[in-house]
Design a protein that fits this description.
Blueprint lengths: L1 H6 L8 E2 L9 E12 L8 E17 L2 E16 L6 H11 L5 E7 L4 E4 L2 H16 L6 H6 L2 H9 L4 H9 L9 E2 L4 E6 L2 E10 L6 E10 L3 H15 L2 H16 L5 E12 L4 E12 L2 E14 L1
Antiparallel strand pairs: 1-7, 2-3, 2-13, 3-4, 4-5, 5-6, 8-9, 9-10, 10-11, 11-12, 12-13
Length: about 300
């Protein structure tokens, strides 16, 4: 680590604010790819899921207080391997996201380029809610899948995708995450990864004569017992009826206090920014160990074209 820090340009040691320099008419198209592999301590074949999307961003307005950016979903695809039938909710979520193709979100950003809200959020939510209702009707009412998944639980699965912050993330990936932040090499920041509290540590490389600069981050999951309990209760509330959740609460307390539930995780990410503001690329990987079940998550964003 010491050798790495010595090799970094001294300029990068100073705090750097990541600020957009967009102009009206600027456009950028990104390709997003991710893969998740969930292993089993019993040695079974891992459950794997992949997803990809293509999104076009167009700066339609430069306002005194920021930017208006239209994000259009051009393509969405996904696949699941070795996925048990009782997890059909995951398949449903993938099918739901495929229905976003052609949808447009009007993003409102501040002067730094940080996305604050979706101007047409209510209209999008209404439209996609109807899509979700129609998809749920296609799920078999009987059989193994139907008995394990009520319409209420399926609705919860899809409604989570319609939260405004989640919708922003679906359209933008991590393209706009750093805009508005002031960071420096060695700085640590509290973040959230898949619902878990974690800490990021940054290293910046910004050579004077280069057209790009790079931000490397190292992520470590850092959760107290209270954090762990809050996360588990939220997941239960999202995925099962309230009476069943209440019945499990005492068991969760016992397992956490007894050290039976443990989560470890670490990851790395590299962000390359063009000095004219657009993110050029992002590559990240994360490994989670939840009571012996290992999950590996890789994500990539690639700038296909820009102007």
């Amino acid at each position: 680590m010491a050798c790495l820090l010595i090799g970094i340009n001294a300029m990068a040691q100073l705090p750097m604010k990541i600020t957009a320099k967009f102009a009206k008419g600027n456009q950028a198209t990104y390709l997003f790819d991710s893969e998740t592999s969930i292993g089993s301590p019993m040695g079974d074949s891992p459950i794997k899921s992949t997803s990809s999307s293509e999104v076009k961003f167009s700066v339609t307005e430069v306002r005194p207080d920021g930017y208006t950016i239209e994000a259009t979903m051009l393509n969405v695809d996904g696949n699941n391997l070795n996925l048990p039938g009782e997890e059909a909710a995951t398949k449903l979520a993938v099918d739901f996201l495929k229905q976003w193709v052609g949808k447009k979100a009007v993003l409102l950003a501040n002067k730094d380029g940080k996305i604050l809200s979706i101007k047409n959020y209510e209209a999008l939510k209404t439209e996609l809610s109807k899509v979700a209702e129609d998809l749920i009707k296609t799920v078999p009412a009987e059989g193994a899948e139907g008995s394990a998944l009520t319409s209420e639980l399926l609705q919860k699965t899809l409604v989570k995708q319609l939260d405004e912050d989640k919708m922003i993330s679906t359209f933008t990936g991590k393209v706009f995450d750093f805009y508005g932040k002031t960071i420096s090499t060695g700085m640590m920041e509290d973040v959230e990864v898949e619902g878990m509290k974690a800490k990021d540590t940054y290293v910046i490389s910004a050579p004077k004569n280069s057209s790009v600069y790079t931000i490397n981050s190292t992520t470590v999951v850092a959760m107290s017992n209270d954090d762990l309990k809050a996360m588990l209760l939220k997941q239960l509330a999202d995925n099962m009826p309230e009476d069943q959740m209440e019945a499990l609460k005492p068991q969760i307390d016992q397992m956490i206090n007894g050290g039976m539930i443990k989560i470890d995780g670490k990851g790395t990410a590299t962000y390359v920014f063009k000095k004219n503001s657009w993110l050029q690329s992002m590559d990240s990987s994360m490994t989670l160990d939840v009571m012996g079940n290992k999950t590996e998550i890789t994500c990539k964003a690639t700038l296909k074209e820009s102007k």
